[in-house]
Amino acid sequence: MTTEVLTVNQLKKEAPVFGQLSFNDHEQIVFCQDKDTGLKAIIGVHNTILGPALGGTRMYDYKTEFDALNDVLRLSRGMTYKAAITGLNLGGGKAVIIGDPKKIKTPELMKRFGKFVHTLGGKYYTAEDVGMETSDMDTVREVTPYVTGISESKGGAGNPSPVTAYGVYMGMKAATKFAYGNDDLNGKKVLVQGIGHVGEELVRLTSKEGAKIVISDINQERLAEVSKKYGVDIYRGDNLYDETADIYAPCALGATVNDETINRLKVKVIAGAANNQLADEAMHGTLLQKKGIVYAPDFLINAGGIINVYAEIEGYGRDQINAKTENIYNTTLDILHKAKATNMTTNAAALSIAEDRIAAKKICSNFNIKK
């Protein structure tokens, strides 16, 4: 009897979904296509033990469909833990639409996507993410109620980006206190990579406190605009990861802490808005720990957005949104101290808290116990 060992590429061909390295006991993967509008989308529902899955829709011009699938798998899993650790009665889901939003996004495409969301009957709620605007969520709302982050004028909580940035800011201050003994950002050098809606708001908050901000982005027009607006420096070097600073704030796409970059980083703190910042959670979390770099888990500190849109489902107001987002500071400190006391990585410590909450709810559900 022989045992065949499949390579990653062979596994993708043999089992393109369940064979994905990022597949993590996901409940449901939905592939959506509409030739008339050009829609190609994937909806990933990771876990609904705590409640309906909620997560934004990302529109991006992926190189391959496998890249899109891998992204939706990683992102939806992250949403499960984001909701769990923040204490929300939500599960984790995410959607991706394949294509350049500047070229193919139309109201018709968004409505067709919304109809696919509607077929899930409330198991998944969508929201705004990369490549999307609040107005796009308003369009989706025309065909399904299972969407959050719609305009305040239409009864929604509005653009979640400012709240997301505020949560990251709270997490950054907590991590700074853990690393330096106080949370004062005045004079701290912060590298902000990616200055979209969230990145720009983080620049505003940190520069207002007196931090020395250096910004980086592939969009040169945005760099010039944000630099002039807030009086911050543009990174002019060849590799941002070689720059000496106090804090690195990744606010673009994920996996920027990887085999290539991790040994080059010259910072004391990593705290940013991007999802899935560690290319390999276990390996790179351990390497950061050994290097003495304080990592504020991304799925915790960027949870302000989900707190904001969850308000539409639960019906609470701006004061509660702000209070829950500010509490990210305390939760971050608790996790950093737990990680140190138990010799765990900060990411593992955060995951353990989230997983414990999910496990407890599952036990209660199995025995019909209200919790």
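The above is record 1. Record 2 follows with the same two-line structure.
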Amino acid sequence: MAKSIIQTEKECYLCRREAEENGYYGGLKDTGLHKHHLIYGRFGAFRKKAERYGLWAYMCAERHHEHGPESPHGNPEVDLALKRTAQEAFEERYGHERWMQEFGKNYL
């Protein structure tokens, strides 16, 4: 399992984003988290690649992973925003051509 290239702290990625938008930069809880693969493809086809390249982030179970209006599993806008984040992070390291070779879809 590769380290995430999306985040460095063990906390909910979406809670952190929301906290910083509201001017809070302190600690967030580090329990009750799920690992969310930002790129997974139909039937999880790209999940292993996402794991290999660190294209994952922690999400809190109760609000941001599988349930709730801000969940990437239930909100296509949030899902697309996370895919864009993954692509940007990947392309900073490996470039656009390699992204297209590996994942075959441009989310930007």
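The mean pLDDT is 92.
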